[in-house]
Amino acid sequence: MITVSLCMIVKNEEEILARCLDTAKDLVDEINIVDTGSTDRTKEIAAQYTDRIYDFEWTYSFAEARNESFKYATMDYIFYLDADDVILEEDQARFKKLKEVLDPSVDSVSMYYDAGTDEFGNVTLKYRRHRLLKREKNFKWAGDCHQYLNVHGNIINSNISITHKKIRHAVGRTISIYENKIKRGDVFSARDYFYYGNELRENGHYEKAIESYNNNLSTDKGWVEDKIFACIFKADCYRYLNDTGNELSSLFQSFNYKAPRAEACCRIGYSFQRKKHYKTAAFWYELAALQVPDPDRWSFIYTAYYTWYPHLQLCVCYYNMRDYKRSYEHNEKARKYREKDPRILHNKKLLEGIFEASR
To answer: Is the pTM of this model over 0.70?
Structure first.
């Protein structure tokens, strides 16, 4: 059976570090904690789980800090987590099984990163990341922020998920890192433009975000999946700016790269729904509902658009078209995912009342 080193970078994580380590401690053979300047009880808490705690002066580069943590690994494979991550029980069981059966010729194992969860326990955003790495391959992190691993070789995709449970959002921190890159005169890659656009959008700088997404799209370099979502997220910015024409143009632009994604189809449907063009909106929601995300897909998967959301909106569209039977059917499909959602329960009561009155 393979052995595993957990490697983490932390700073002021006293609220959540124990929660994370409690879910991982029985899965790994070694825990390495690199602290980048904590002023709270983080190191004291870490000491309850390991004596392998190291200090590293923060250099404004997550990649450098993560690479430093990897240096202390001594086991066959390296596994990494952030302090606000947890491993749910079913995924702990899958992880233990993976350790038992993993072929040592494997260089990297990808796992899902469940980056968001709604109030009903449904995953809202997931994507794959290289998560378990053969130590002797000496894979390195790159990127000051939104860092990534340069991995090659024998890679397999697992069904294990790491669940992100953030308790607060560090507003503006990542933007400042990108702004420092600009001040230094760094040359941005297509990937930099995409993620800088994301940070600008999430912080309400929509016009600057559009410019950054366009910079990504203007080059033939970069990952095609980033370009698809550059179009989709650019459309979101135009919607926030009440520019419906460019919103739709950006969504259709995403079709230049691959077949329509449910994330784009639902947004197109919503654009027509806002104009009360319910038949056209229903067409796009129906198309979204037919999409099934590839389990081996590495880019963002916003699961609502493949599950309950198009059905809830189809309920609304068909209701407005007075097709109450279809409206009810789609509401029931949405209810499978969010059975206590007050909107869905309201629709159910309303439609059942219409059926009762027509008898």
So the answer is: yes
